[in-house]
Prior knowledge:
Elements: H1 3-11, H2 23-46, H3 51-71, H4 76-92
Helix pairs in contact: 1-3, 2-3
Amino acid sequence: MQLSDYQKAAAFTAIYPQEHAILYPALGLAGEAGEVANKVKKMIRDNNTDLKAIAAELGDVLWYVAALARDLGVDLDDLANDNLNKLYDRKERGKLQGNGDTR
């Protein structure tokens, strides 16, 4: 499945009010990313690796990324390509490490 196909399919399950576009999925993304981090944290504390549970939370993260990108008018395929191009450029210039958005 292409990311843009996922984005279109996920839109059918988006039931939040349009007046909360961008805000709703951004907050949901933060919450779901926190759930991923919490499950990983519990791996350390409990020495119990539940990879399926972490993967399920990552699926929720993906849904919110798709919804937020849609609300911003950004296609996920384009987003992924642009991100890789940025990272490959940084690697080529020896700038993967360090700080700043414009390195």
